[in-house]
């Protein structure tokens, strides 16, 4: 510290008072830091008020200066990664899918989801879950027993256990449907609903799937038949894409 203080004091020593005005030199202004250049009218700004801010238009190699200006971190995230769970069922389904995907058991969980969906369509199970005189505790025990007998994947089993503890058995079927929907979007499956007054044969459904795949270019097509007793008089059955 002593050498530093001595050198600083020698630099700050005032000039001789008997010096003429010609020997007094004014202090030079501080140079502007090079890494913060002043705005130039010839240089285009990185962000425009007339165009939407996107990565492709606001962050290019031509616009880079000595100090790069990074856009808002949220603009770097793909739109597909911003999930908004509008219903509790979507949130549960997304959590199950994320856990299955991170553990490499996505297809196994999806297989058990479809298996559980078919079991829940059983008339006896539906009557048990919809029984107004049966308490939530009894329904929860029945659901746990069903999950044990079904030998489902542990992630699906844990989800059912958590929903039982939170008295959310009423939306189990909705959670399974949301899981199927998100799974289809993830693997690029196009889902098609075909409405008709009578059940459509598998051969016709297969032809419809092949036609939709050819027109849409989807990797996979899933066709579901929605049977309605009375349909409006139209020349052909209706198709609903999702």
UniProtKB/TrEMBL annotation:
Species per Swiss-Prot/TrEMBL record: Gossypium hirsutum
Taken from the record, one Pfam family name reads: OSCP
Of which family is this protein a member?
Answer: Belongs to the ATPase delta chain family.
- Matches recorded under InterPro entries: ATP_synth_OSCP/delta_N_sf (IPR026015), ATPase_OSCP/dsu (IPR000711)
Entry's NCBIfam families? ATP_synt_delta
This protein is called what?
ATP synthase subunit delta, chloroplastic
Q: Where's it found, cell-wise? A: Membrane
Subunit structure, per the record?
F-type ATPases have 2 components, CF(1) - the catalytic core - and CF(0) - the membrane proton channel. CF(1) has five subunits: alpha(3), beta(3), gamma(1), delta(1), epsilon(1). CF(0) has three main subunits: a, b and c.
In this chain, composition skew of type Polar residues spans 1-22
Q: Which GO terms describe its cellular component?
A: membrane
Q: Which gene encodes it?
A: LOC107942891
